[in-house]
Amino acid sequence: xxxxxxxxxxxxxxxxxxxxxxxxxxxxxxxDIESAGPxxxxxxxxxxxxxxxxxxxxxxxxxxxxxxxxxxxxxxxLVEVTYVGTHEKAPY
Length: 92
Known about the structure:
There is one protein chain. This protein is an alpha+beta fold. It has one domain (4-89): RelE-like (YaeB-like fold). It contains two helices and five strands, in the order E-H-H-E-E-E-E. It has helices at residues 9-17, 20-36; strands at residues 4-7, 47-48, 53-59, 65-73, 78-86. A five-stranded mixed β-sheet has the order 1-5-4-3-2. The N and C termini lie far apart (29 Å).
């Protein structure tokens, strides 16, 4: 069974401000989460944070872009992307 990925309102607005290549990388990450789950050890600088939160880098360099997501419900397999943007403003 696949996972369902939702985006928070803040992440949805931030996504629209990203360049097209970064958005495509974000969509690839979301596809991977949907098909294989929230633990993405195969993505660059992936890290599991406290309380079911995860993050990884979408693009290294300057500026570095990251995505942060949280496991909302493991039973129904629901994940919410809570932040997409530059590393400096990431909530972790």
